Amino acid sequence: MTRIPRGVLGLTLTIAAAALLPGCQRAAQEERPALIVLIAVDQLRADLLERYDSLFTGGLRRLMDQGRYYASGVHDHAGTETAPGHATLATGVFPSRHGIVQNDWDEKVAAGWRTVYNTADTTERIVGMPAQEGRSPRNLLREGLADWVAAADTAALIVSISGKDRSAILLGGKVRGHVYWFADTGGRFATSTYYRAEYPLWLDRFHREWVEPLTTDTVWASSVPAAAAALTRRDTVPYEGDGAHTYFPHRFSEEGRGGTATDYFRWFARTPFLDAATLALARTAVEALALGKDPATDLLAVGLSQTDRVGHDYGPLSREQLDNLLRVDRELGEFLGFLDQAVGEGRYVLALSADHGVATVPEYLQELGRPGRRVLYGEVAAVMKAIERAAAGPDTADAADRIAAAVERFDFVADAVPYHELAGGEPADSFITLFQHSYHPGRLTPPLGRFGIEVRLTEGTIISDRRTGTGHGSPYLYDRHVPVLLLGPGVVPGRSSEHVRTVDVAPTLARLAGVPVPGDLDGRALVP
User: Nearest-5° angle of CA 124, CA 125, CA 131?
Assistant: First the structure.
């Protein structure tokens, strides 16, 4: 049987449908966006857009100037990690309901305890890499934007692409669409058998033409204008990178741990280059799958992961992070220009936000005279010993309270909350509310969840296995404050100081595209 190309079939159906629809219905269909685009920039702390506002000239500039810019967006949950952040953006509900409470969580099983990675699935395998553990969205307990789009029109295509598996998978919902992420062990964008048994020809061609030549790009040089360098902290400090290679240029020959292709791609996956590859693949997917070319409204989700990896290694105020953000700005500008041509300006709706923020490097906070502390794993061992002593008492209903009291004696702990305080009742303070939004029974935060408690560190404190870089995961505003930017038909341009939450992103995109949503969401549409 001859297969009619999707674009040709879509045009035929559009003409036929238009002939049958009354005038008002025809106008509504013509106004419906052809494509929904959801972009998550991993670890994009909101204040960074303000700090470097004058330097942006590309996609971030366009979104801030021509779109709706909510500068006061927040994640309204305590566990500010990558997996729960992406799942929240995609589903419109809190982690307590979608179930992705952390990147990893502990579950009680017959043999004791097991640690679960958020998208791990032993019933699946990575296509072309059978030795690798499989991935899928089966741990995600709620359907999301991708599922709503697919339910609204079975002809809709769902595409989700990222540098990280958890980003691509969770943004893609539970739909068996085109979902790809970068696997540094294979040096390619991969998927799992949950989605398909083999790679499409256009993806293989992309790797030959785009990814393989990247193996010659072994130097990350600064693109920061000399006049802008003063907006960052100094470039040579002992508390970033590996402690030795802390300034530009960064070279694989000096910072790579070996000379194999896998070693290279592990280095590559900690530079801004991977975001460029991710957006290049997104452009390829739009063209190869003819997204936005027929009456069905398609979905394209893109996770840009490198702001997170650069931020972890060098900190949010580093010279490296500014360079990365300038590259993100330029790449997004080119990507939006591509969408204008390939889909049509005014024919797509787009939202950009982040999965979490990040703590400023604690040693830099100390230089500024502000509270900041790095707690190394050796100090955590002392906490575990105190817990073991407290847990050795009578196995009574107040065991978690005894353990919480023992943990709170450490000066870097602000509060220890027994789970029974999260399970019901009126919250004692706003932090308790945030922890409630991250609590799902049976999925407990390691390592202290096994003892029945959640812990809030003092502000500015991180727990680390090394003496460089920084982290996130707290309920403090620096980890929760993220931008929300909208663009497209139905969006009123301008800057807004309105308090919005990341659970609002998915229902807003659905409203803009005329896609029905469940009636029990935690978020709301930000447009009429």
Answer: 140
Residue 415 belongs to what domain range?
Answer: 373-458
At 425 the pLDDT is 67
> Does 509 share its domain with 451?
no
**Polymer length of the chain:** 528
Q: What integer is the mean pLDDT of 260-280?
A: 92
Looking at the structure, do residues 317 and 442 belong to the same domain, yes or no? Answer: no
Strands 68-74 and 494-496: parallel
Tens-digit pLDDT profile for residues 293-304: 999 999 999 999
User: DSSP character for 192?
Assistant: B
For residues 484 and 70, the answer to whether their CB atoms sit within 8 Å is yes
Long-range contacts of 232-238 (CB under 8 A, 24+ apart): 232/317, 232/318, 232/319, 232/321, 232/322, 233/315, 233/317, 233/318, 233/319, 233/364, 234/319, 235/318, 235/319, 237/363, 237/364, 238/468
Asked if residue 508 is part of any domain, the answer here is: yes
Look at residue 185 in the predicted model and tell me its pLDDT: 87
Residues 153 and 42 in one domain: yes
List pLDDT tens digits, range 339-371.
999 999 999 999 999 999 999 999 999 999 999
Q: Which stretches of 136-226 are assigned E, i.e. beta strand? A: 158-162, 178-183, 188-190, 219-220
Query: Do both 234 and 142 map to the same domain?
Result: yes
